[in-house]
Amino acid sequence: MAMLLIGFGFLMVFVRKYGRSALTATFLLVSISLPMYMSMKGLGIFEAKGEIEQLILAEFGAASLLIAAGAILGRIRMIQYIILGLLFIPFYMFNELIVIGDYFHFVGKVADTGGSIVIHAFGALFGIAAAVSLTTQEDMEIPIESDATTDKYSVLGSMVLWVFWPSFCAALVPIEAIPHTVVNVFIALCGSTIAAYVASVLIRGKVSIADIANAALAGGVAIGATCDFASHPQAMIIGVIAGAISTIGFAILQNKQQRIHKIVDTCGVSNLHGIPGIFGGLAAIVVIDGIDIYAQLKGITITVFIAVLAGLLCGKVISLFGKTKDVYDDSAEFLANE
Amino acid sequence: MAMLLIGFGFLMVFVRKYGRSALTATFLLVSISLPMYMSMKGLGIFEAKGEIEQLILAEFGAASLLIAAGAILGRIRMIQYIILGLLFIPFYMFNELIVIGDYFHFVGKVADTGGSIVIHAFGALFGIAAAVSLTTQEDMEIPIESDATTDKYSVLGSMVLWVFWPSFCAALVPIEAIPHTVVNVFIALCGSTIAAYVASVLIRGKVSIADIANAALAGGVAIGATCDFASHPQAMIIGVIAGAISTIGFAILQNKQQRIHKIVDTCGVSNLHGIPGIFGGLAAIVVIDGIDIYAQLKGITITVFIAVLAGLLCGKVISLFGKTKDVYDDSAEFLANE
Amino acid sequence: MAMLLIGFGFLMVFVRKYGRSALTATFLLVSISLPMYMSMKGLGIFEAKGEIEQLILAEFGAASLLIAAGAILGRIRMIQYIILGLLFIPFYMFNELIVIGDYFHFVGKVADTGGSIVIHAFGALFGIAAAVSLTTQEDMEIPIESDATTDKYSVLGSMVLWVFWPSFCAALVPIEAIPHTVVNVFIALCGSTIAAYVASVLIRGKVSIADIANAALAGGVAIGATCDFASHPQAMIIGVIAGAISTIGFAILQNKQQRIHKIVDTCGVSNLHGIPGIFGGLAAIVVIDGIDIYAQLKGITITVFIAVLAGLLCGKVISLFGKTKDVYDDSAEFLANE
Questions:
Q1: Segment-wise mean pLDDT, segments of 10 residues, chain C, 338 residues
Q2: CA within 13 Å, CB half, C108
Q3: B51–A180: do the CB atoms touch at under 8 Å?
Q4: Which of A298, B326, B331, B334 is the most buried (most CB within 10 A)?
Q5: Which residues pair with A207 in a beta bridge?
Q6: Which chains have 3+ CB pairs within 8 A of B?
Q7: Contact by Cβ (8 Å): C300, C282
């Protein structure tokens, strides 16, 4: 189980393409959210659990926080990332308590082993909602720069995540279900990788390496809700669909979304985590025999609701603390190379 | 055992130095070969096995495929990589079935725990044979470019593989043999690393960082066949010899090979995987008490035979689909940086 | 337990910023020290142990050697690294034998599970003492160059180490103590990361990315001695203090140290491993109930004594073999890119 820690570490690495700020922010967000989650768990509201399980749950929370931060990366100051972390974790835990823990006994049993809904969709929607107050006219006009090295980095980061994804999903699965879960996650990832390539070529004519880097992982996001229940062919189908819709998102919808909603989603988290996460949650209804359909739909709806509301609120609060002077440039806060 | 997945992931990273095409090809080859291998295993010809064991065997196949692709990297189009994957896996499984599974009962018991013969030598020979039809006069005149950053990447990739190699070899070893196997593989890698340095200095006068990056791993390739049987001093000797012959291969033979056989072996897989793999398979004859010498020799011969024949055939088929316009340059198929 | 191997591999990666020489040196140091440690263990003086435990202890030794090498990196020739490795390991094992093995029965029981004292402080002090004979006037005038890419590499290397640190500390802990140990190490690392950021901003006005990359790990160094005994809040306090003193060391003391002691400590090992290591060893006196205070103090004193003496001696011996012509430039020993 401890293998999750590794995968998790590389999740941080993945966000590296915006330089020193992104790396430092990632480091700080993780360092704040882990102890915060674990100490809040000790307050008595929550079910008592083993230390390792609690650590893994804390890491799930940190992963969701990093996804949320991905939507506004590059446009806030370091102190604002810290505020984001402090505000995000309580909302995340509240949603987890209601949807997974069924604290108020009005949701029922939601299938979401690997966190398609409560980790990926929650984080993505929170981040996008927060971006509403944190996107200026200027942000929309400045292109997010990348170069060949940066692009290669993202594919490598994506590969690392790809390889570790199964351990992430299998971290809290009962030991006898681990082999089936691990194979399912790999198959879904294979599906989304192939689909990402095909969709990228069909839509754009040429391959966009950014599509591959991102959409290859969409299968992992989407299989989360059903990773221990789906058959292998179902896992393949879920992966292929997730890869395709994620690529369509990156290649077609992203620019439209920015123009219509006036939001810049720096890392494209809505296309990688948001839509595939919700798709994965809905797929459980088809895949899992005897699933409580209403509980599943309620769980998704509540997650969307809390994430958007909390994200809007937090975005507003964070925006009170100002804004980076130079978008996507960290020289205002970092020393030049010595 | 699941640790193998990680090592495997980094195997892909290792091939990164030819840019976006190499990364995308790696991603696609893995995504095609894993489900293909696993679904073919379900056809009934093969012995039934646990899901994790099957996944590991599928990854062994994918690793061998990546080795084969290393020989022709940079000179074919993306669609041709896909064809390579589709053609390679059946031949690989056929060879595995005959040599390891002893399907026709005419080989006997071959010692090849870590795949020196059926993974490394097979993949390398297949790749080189395929390169016969896929090397043009032009390829031989264009140097394969690398720069300081690229070189550092390969050493880092090599280090990652170095560290994960023992888990790769120990993945299917019985649990009580794991400690001895892991230590043996590390010792062999230490031996080949030291030998690579010494040989590089002796042959070239100065150190070639490419020699270090490659030949340091030769001990891991060669110890594969005997990793659970060799004593520690034997492991050291195998490692040192493998490191030395691999370095000699890179420093002296590679250019001659290209001129004589009219083949360009992009990643030098014959020197890293081919020769050390066969050496490792032969070393088993000396190292393992009571080994069936004829079975071992038959296993090696059959592997060489199938690999070369299948490689020649597949190279021919792949060459029917054309050729990249610009060798070692992926701008024809990839979008420029956005 | 085998997870330590991975963390260890990335420790090597961390040292990469001085290019091909650093990488090759790292490779060689590890390849020499592992078999040397293990074969010396077989001489009969030492307690017999399982093969994996012995491998892990050998890796602890290699880690300490890499720390020592960090202090003089970039200023010696390749052959001198090899001599360093050959000289270091016997002294390291001698210190380990006396302080941890209590061979002469005059130290008593020292608390140092994760090696704050015998791995980190020993390696750092050895390296700094060796630097006395290996620092020239010229070294002190030449700045150690880094650039934006290099800086990002170090943060990434630091993140990898951060994630693997808990498995390093927990590698030899009894299985029932692993969860508490792992959580403690993570908490200490969170503490030092936050402290490094805060201290860097307070001292320098802006964030130095090098401070973050280094001091974020100081909590891991310091918690080593008490990782299985400290409570979680104590782990947080130890982490915060270690991160703060390490950042103060990098930001304020490093330049003074160089001027006063006429030593250049290339990687700043005294601030990352030396001071936090000794602090961690001392913290055990406060943290662990019923600890043998005199044994702990004796253990630290003996380690400091042996490390400094052995380091001075080895530095002298190594200096007899000459010096690199061009400091921090490896073109004298490496072929240009082919």
A1: 48 53 83 90 69 85 90 85 94 93 84 92 95 78 61 73 81 85 92 94 85 89 93 95 93 77 79 93 92 93 96 94 66 60
A2: 10
A3: yes
A4: B334
A5: B334
A6: A, C
A7: yes
